[in-house]
Amino acid sequence: MRKKISIGLLMILIILLISGCVFFRPDPDETAQVFLRGLENGQYEEIYQMLSSEAKARVKKDFFVNRYRETYEQLGKIELKLEMVRPADGQKWEIKDNRVEIPVKGKMLTWTVGEINMDQILHLVYEEKEWRIDWKSTNILPQLSDLSYSLAVTRLPAERGNIYDRNGEKLVGPGIIYRIGLVPGKMENWDEAINSLAKLLDMTPERIEQALQQKWVRPDLFVPLRSITKDEWLTKKDKFLAIPGVLASSYEGRVYFGPKSLAPTVGYLGEINQKELQDWATEGYELGDKVGRTGLEKKFEKFLAGKPGYMIRILDKEGKEQAMVKFTRSQKGNDLILTIDQRLQKISELAMGERSGVVIAMVPETGEILALGSFPGYDVNEFLLGKSSTHLSKILNDPAKPLVNRPIQGRYIPGSTFKPLTALAALEFYPEYDPEKKVEISEDTWRAEPGWGSYRVKRVSRPTGPVDLYGAMKWSDNIYFAQLAYRMGSEPLFKIAERVGFGQKIPFTLDVAYSTLASRKPITNTILLADTGYGQGQILMTPLHLAIIYSAIATDGKLRKPVLLSIEEKAKVWKDTIASSENLTLLQDVLKVTVQDETALAHTAYIPGLNLAGKTGTAQLSEGRVMGWFVCYYPASGPEFLLLVGIEDANNGSQEAIEVARQILMEYYQNNLDNKQESLNQ
């Protein structure tokens, strides 16, 4: 009897197993885990196969896959983490009617709004002997309670940071802009109005006509043509309003307030292109956004741009908000404060006038740049406010190269401003050299050897008689320095060049071109060697490099890192001592005499009370073209201020550079005296 009962029970168990009885149904954990990992990894096509028959009937595969991809792309998904919340120890899943609900804790990291809460319920159903996902739209996003709802991601643009000078004067930032346009129905003489307005806006009449012929244009509608600055509006206001049909509306936008000569340093903005958008999409950029194209605007794009805010909402078919997923405010970009003194920059601009060239002013002991003038400059607002492509093309292709930042990218022949380095090379590395020895140079031209043929080194007229280093420097005697280089050879020149950073990257906020002494080492061509001694030959230097070398000579012989941003460390040493203190003291005295001696070529720069020191230079650029230089500093001992002026195509060589420098020095020095007196009075 017992045997028959056992056989009966066994048969019942076999039948139950075959029928898939619930007692032997697997836990849903594994299915849920596989589905969640697939979601995390974006394997939407694969996990669609895990859906229940009901879910597949509700949503087709293509819709399922595309909805996930589009939604997560809109959200800016970076990473998704989902974990199911298991039952407490000793407890099992609550399964009812072959269905179970599994709580899921989740977070999605996005580049739009940071973290998004992805807590949800995962529904599973047991069918065809396995657990399947009874998928809901909330498994895409918890707030997406209906598949007919849509996701709306609204970007809230960030305000770009401003750029200021050392005194808090705004160089770039918000300003009033005027949008000029026409109302066709109010125009009286069509051709006359278009031609007059074209001249005022620097546009072609054809372009204005094209704007007026757009399909949306109506007689009573305002047709915008071009935006201009407040200053331009105030200057031309009466002329604009004298044309029937012209209207102007104002709005706030980014405006450049600084001098044109600083524009290559500050840089301009341009619309983001497709390649940049691919690289920067996760930074919140969109087509139509403007990004830094050159200068500081480009270098500090991410720093200045700020971070856009986002409003992520769920909308129904009528566009009504059903849920707010997340909202973040935009964050204004950071401000840049420069060491530039805008007042000094403007003084330099007035002194330079229409000339092409360079003006640099700096504090020798700290490396702070006070002025970085590139001439000619350009109007940044022409890029910011969208002048015609034809006009911008003229700027880009201008032979005067206004976009080139001459102080740091221009490579020039230094001429006689290099002579102090030739002297240092001899003092440091040529023991036979005696700076006090009088050298007899009777002729105004010199040839070292017959192999030079007809080539001669020439010098400017000076008092007759032998000269030592003092006399050679103050009268800028090319023959003295050519003979010195010829005698000592190129090795001392290369050694001093290495000490002062030739062929090396200058640590500066913006990229600086390399300075070079010669194309080959050593210099075997004796003509080239002699020419190098007085600053010609193959020497090419950036004005900034020349300025920091003179700053080192004027102080303690340390080359200091040039500083453009107020937050940078001041007086940071780039290259330690370029010469002995004894030789530096001698050279400082020589440069003082070079300006203050009444017979010196540079004495025209002398200003009583300034205790000025420095050196002139006239470099031969090409046949009939010269570069006029003057580098000076004051006071001669413990200098507070260094000024470099370089003029391309100088009509009067270095004397023209002196004229400009003198005007800058007198204006700046007098302003400083006035400011000090005002402070004392307060």
Automatic annotation (TrEMBL):
Domain of life: Bacteria
Any one GO BP annotation for this protein: response to antibiotic
Subcellular location: Membrane
InterPro entries attached to this UniProt entry: Beta-lactam/transpept, Beta-lactam/transpept-like, MecA_N, NTF2-like_dom_sf, PBP_dimer, PBP_dimer_sf, PCN-bd_Tpept, TPR_rpt
Similarity field: Belongs to the transpeptidase family.
Cellular component terms (Gene Ontology): plasma membrane
Domain Penicillin-binding protein transpeptidase, first and last residues per copy: 357-665
Residues in NTF2-like N-terminal transpeptidase domain copies: 28-146
Protein's recorded name: Penicillin-binding protein
GO molecular function annotations of the record: penicillin binding; peptidoglycan L,D-transpeptidase activity
Sequence ranges assigned to domain Penicillin-binding protein dimerisation in this UniProt record: 156-322
TPR repeat boundaries on the chain: 174-207
Keywords annotated in UniProt: Membrane, TPR repeat
